[in-house]
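chain below, 483 aa
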Amino acid sequence: MSETRVPTIIIAGTASGVGKTTFTLGLIAAFRARGLRVQPFKCGPDYLDPTYHTLAASLPCRNLDTWMLTPEVMTGLFTRAVAGADIAVIEGVMGLHDGRGGAGARGSTAEVAKLLRAPVLLVIDTARLSRSAGAMALGYQAFDPDVWIAGLLLNQVGTERHRRWVTEGIQERTGIPILGHLPKQAPVKLPERHLGLVPAGEVEDVSRSLAAIREQVEATVNVEEILALARAAAPLPTGDRALCPERPPQRKVRIGLARDAAFGFYYEDNLDLLRAWGAELVAVSPLRDHILPPDLQGLYIGGGFPELHARELATNRSFRRQIAEAAGDGMPVYAECGGLMYLAESLVDLEGERHGMVGAVPGTSVMQRSRVRLGYVTATAVRDSILSPAGVTLMGHEFHWSNMAPPDPRYAAYRIPEACSELGRRDGDRLEGIVAGPAGNILASYLHLHFGSDLQLMHRFLERCRVWMRAATADAFVMEGGS
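prediction:
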């Protein structure tokens, strides 16, 4: 069995919000300044942190998920992505051991670390700690000895005396090296809003912010020692060769990919897999474009922030009409979360203003003042769609602040079990998503799916695009008088 060896380092945290992203960005920039090609990753189903990783590395960030993906697929996607890279830098999700539930490592950064056999740098927020930081570090060291905690990074360090006390408390019992810190008055704080960080493309002077973060990391973090640790990562088996064909199909399927300030939430591996299996992804912008590109055979509209651009989306009537007409003609259209909101009849923003949307699926999305849903879900397809036949189980993720009335049972895409109550009784199932269109050619849902969880989802979508392409070509031939 062939192996892949690439220096790898994981930046994990004791909890969310302890400074993982800042350390990660600083290290990516510092490694790049040393002439290294850095492949960034983010654990879990995150779309926002990766926008900063991508900018810092000048390479697309990819997600590593051990709940939606099997270990073999996750490792296979990782080894495929690092081909040609000099180092892989992985930012964890939440706390090191936080995953799908309270027991077991599934979906956690710790599981990723064990599968990749990679060293972990643990970030601790020391703002209100001194010797107690040692107890915290000792607990993480002992909790799962199979996770290699190779070093510690301290955030929110106040004074030199504070740093010394924290260091003494940690070294008293653990022996874990402290490889750097960030001061309490850090030079940069990345802006946030309701879904998390503001995407990097919307931040003014973001390049200057990244430069300031790198300068701080270079000053107070032992970058060379971290690079040496990364080079000690164990080699990995090359992974699942069935993920991609040895030779890509010669005949391409042209799929429009909605990508602009309103729509940008995609797993990069989804796009890679589509391309590998014959898709030509054509960028379209519901904000700026007025017509769809010619000869499209399908459309993929991901999540994003349509609520922040609702007025502009509504004003672009010609593009909305083009999508409605294409969907009405039978073109396969797949939409996730923000894409669902756009395909619906209207969107009500946080100010209560209603904006007309495409109208390809029934319903109105209404923005709420608090989060509606967040977390992994297991869904069962209740009818055939462009991704799966009825009865198939899908692994997905939801994260949204808007709400829509439950779909008409005649058109619902999925049935999702609700969470169990404290007494252990299931609260009941809910219907989610809509299958619509003249040939069931539209699938729109709040559910985010990773095609690596079931390659048949992607294959079915591509085949439906090919079938529609052949049918549309035959219709055009007849209309032109062919025989």
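Residues 205 and 413 are 42 Å apart (CA to CA). Confidence is low (pLDDT under 50) at residues 420-425.
thats it, cya
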